[in-house]
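Expect chain and fold; see below:
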Amino acid sequence: MSVIVFNRFLSLLAMLAMATTILLVIPAMRRRASGFPRLWAAWAVATVSTLGSLAYSEIYGYEPCRLCWYQRIAMYPLVI
């Protein structure tokens, strides 16, 4: 998969996450439902972010900048 295709795939995932937030998480927050939808959404965002950053650095060979390292340090433990 080329970098352009991977970029488009991640952008589609971002739009899917936004639609899921609008359709599922916001109504659950209004009903004062359990925290499960919010935790699931947070885990999904952290997982996709981690896999995306690993793909860019390990598969496509992009070297992350210093600020990207700080973001990764904060994002990777959220998946676990």
